[in-house]
Amino acid sequence: MRMRILTERLELLPGRPRDVPALYHALRRNVDHLRPYTPAPEPGEKRPSLTVAARELARWRSLWQRGDSYAFYVWPREASGGRDDRPIIGRITLGRVTRGVFQNAYLGYWIDRDHQSSGLMTEAVRAVLKFAFGPLRLHRVQAGVMPENERSMRVLEKNGFWREGLALRYLKIAGEWRDHVLFALTLEEWEKTI
């Protein structure tokens, strides 16, 4: 949980309990932006809320400690002041890490509405891939993107991912089963890009 990834413009860190207010503000600020790409909230759950933010951080911390999944919160590096004075501007996850003969994780990410098309998510994904293929020793990272989310597909393509195909009704997003374009990257292809 002490992992810290620095890029030219970003700092990527696992969440900690004191980050709840920053995450709450990021989720609240981006609720309309993220709604089309997010699973519907559980019945009776008001989203976003401090409780939802606290549960998210606790869940990802628990998964990290078990080695099942890893979440990095994206912070701007150039902001003055400490971590507590900066906003969270995104999140990247390596979920459902599978060991054995697969050595795979599922990549997920989002970025603040005002930071789209800035290259920041491409930069952040590249940094997390170094972690995935380096310290985690994964062989494959894959991702699914809804066909209309062209920006997200460009992030993957710029990082060397290739399209594997279309998965019909792949995930239930915003209350509906949605098709996803599947992408993947293996260690061998990753090594050609670095």
Give a topology summary.
Blueprint: E1 5-6, E2 10-13, H1 20-29, H2 31-34, H3 50-66, E3 70-76, E4 90-98, E5 104-111, H4 120-133, E6 140-145, H5 150-158, E7 162-173, E8 176-186, H6 187-193
Parallel strand pairs: 5-6
Antiparallel strand pairs: 1-2, 2-3, 3-4, 4-5, 6-8, 7-8
Helix pairs in contact: 1-3
What do you see in this structure?
There is one protein chain. This protein is α+β, with helices and mostly antiparallel strands. The protein has one domain: Aminopeptidase (3-Layer(aba) Sandwich). An eight-stranded mixed beta sheet has the order 1-2-3-4-5-6-8-7, with helices on both faces. Helix 1 packs across helix 3. The longest helix is centred in the N-terminal third of the chain and has 17 residues. The chain starts with a strand and ends with a helix.
The percentage helix is 25-40%
Number of alpha- plus pi-helical segments: 6
Query: Regarding CATH, which class?
Result: Alpha Beta
Radius of gyration: 16 Å
Outline type: globular
- Largest β sheet strand count, sense and barrel closure: 8 strands, mixed
Structural class by sheet pairing and helices: alpha+beta
Query: CATH topology, anyone?
Result: Aminopeptidase
Q: Which homologous superfamily in CATH is the superfamily? A: Gcn5-related N-acetyltransferase (GNAT)
